[in-house]
Amino acid sequence: MYMNCFEEVKNITKDLVSTPSIVRSLGGETNCARKIYEYYTELDYFKKYPDRVKMLKTVDDFVDRHSTYAYVKGTKGNSNRTIILLGHIDTVGVDDFGHIKEYAFSPDKLPELLMNMDISEEVREDILSGEYMFGRGALDMKSGVAGHMHLIKYFSEHPEELNGNIIAYAECDEEDGSHGVLTGLKEFKMLKEKEGFEYIACINADYSTGYNIGDVNRYVYFGSIGKLLPSFYVVGKEAHVGQAYSALDPNLIVAELTRLIELNTDLCDEAQGEITIPPMSLKQSDFKEGYTVQTALAAYAYYNFFTHSMSPADVIKVCREKAVEAFDNVIKYTNESYKKYCHMSNIEYRELPWKTRVKTWEEFYDELEKDHGEKFRKHIFDFAKELNEKEPTLDLRIFSVKVIEEAWKWSSDKSPSIIVFFGSVFSARIEMTGKTEKERELLDSVNNSIKKVQEHCENPIKVRMFYPYISDSSFMALSDDVETIETLGKNMPSWKTKYFYDVNEVLEINVPVVNIGTFGKDGHMITERVHMKYTFENVPNMTYSTICELLK
User: Fold this and answer.
1) Cα 506 vs. chain centroid, distance in angstroms?
2) Phi-psi region at 305: left, alpha or beta (left = phi > 0; alpha = psi -120 to 50)
3) How far apart are the C-alpha atoms of 217 and 214, rounded to whole Å?
4) Domain-by-domain residue ranges, the chain?
5) d(CA 181, CA 59)
């Protein structure tokens, strides 16, 4: 069967887009979750089974916000096999819309306003084509959630088609700290115990786009890219700028780190013939608050690092090596500069005293624990815990730096150093190879569904093995072994005080994932837009067919 769902998914999408839900905004994510909850509770099925739909407040969160889920139990047989439909309802902000930001959530009015602005010819053509819906969240990814809502409605009216169950989870906080999905994992576990659910697959509906302007393909992605944030805390030696060679500038070391890491294709990761984008700098800064003629004492930097096959242990190892290389290069450079300056000034050259000193957070912590014992361990844990209690909204990356700064006070050796650590949320890589029965079933079901829908889609639908953007489907399974997660924790200053990746909760679900998601252009931009026919019609039909194949 091929569903005629375009108009309904379009109307739901417009309704969701018109409900602002900027991540962390007061009441926004909850308002959107409530809109979805009200949609479900109006359906006859959930009037009969009200306990099968729920608004869910996030746990261990500093923001008051909610997600919504609903599930339908099939009546075709007695199977407990269950599919999770995943999508997020939060969006990034709208400050980029400038003077028209009040229309950022108005799909009907926004195109006309954009036509009066300095936009590209491609955007202008897409507006005139009438094939796209504009608005913040239209592409990323309320249209995907809308498709799932339609499927829940359909199966609530036709449970006899399912030999098993489906649950659609519309989560908050995907764009920031993933509190929505982390809370969802606890709820999935509860449902597993209450209803006997046997989770077999997760279908995400996050957005996709072309790889270049001329790319006419549509994409379905198995698995998901992994993401880590290797970070570097650099301590230098301060001096008056008039005594430049008495200083070791941490900004120079950070600059060299960026030169060695950013866009370095040697650091691309490969699996199944697919390559990650190389690392990119997301932050570099020193800690001087105002102008002085003293060089900086410390600086820090962090970099986006995508993975297909590398574990956290692999990433921390290669980043430590790059830190050593950067430190060596800066020492060589400063000595060569000083030697040339001495020759120019006709003064005696003596080699500068700097020595390369690089430690991971694990190495630094263990060193201090060896020197100070339980006293240090308790102090740092209590410091981090109290810091989080006093400043719960503190950025996770800054939180980590503050913990390192506190630990540095305990170090007897204050010579210039680099401390390498992980500074942010861990998004696990998920690689599907067909090694398990569940993976093979999902691979086959999706490929068969693509074939069925392709005749209704004017663009080629291509399959790739890693979703190329960060998504919360990374919390649905684990391809790395548990030991590597221990390495992650040992190199996170925020571990178990502000952040914790609970391996056991992930393994309670541990299902293969596929992204059958929205398609459009310019996600997170003022010209964000979703292609309507593909997203409102082809995508729900591919998801429908996949569900029917898995639960036949």
Assistant:
1) 16
2) beta
3) 9
4) 6-225+428-476+511-550, 226-422
5) 10
pTM of the model: 0.92
Task: Please state the φ and ψ torsions of residue 284, each to the nearest 5 degrees.
Answer: -150, 130
Write the pLDDT tens digit of every residue in 519-540.
999 999 999 999 999 999 999 9
Contact (CB, 8 A) for 550 and 203: no
Residue 177 has pLDDT above 90, yes or no: no
Instruction: Give the pair of three-digit tokens for residue 211.
Output: 């790889």
Q: How far is CA 147 from CA 3, 382, 438, 456, in A?
A: 11, 46, 24, 17
| Phi, psi torsion values for 157, nearest 5 degrees | -90, -15
CATH of 226-422, one of 2.60.40.10, 3.30.70.360, 3.40.50.20, 1.10.10.10: 3.30.70.360
Find the length of the chain: 552
Check: CB of residue 16 under 8 Å from CB of residue 137.
yes
Share of the chain above pLDDT 90, in %: 97
Cα distances from 532 to residues 94, 145, 201, 222, 373, in angstroms, run 22, 14, 26, 23, 61
Other residues' Cβ atoms within 10 Å of the Cβ of residue 272: 14
Dist CA 362 CA 383 (whole Å): 17
Report how far residue 102's alpha carbon sits from residue 87's, in angstroms, rounded to the nearest whole number: 25
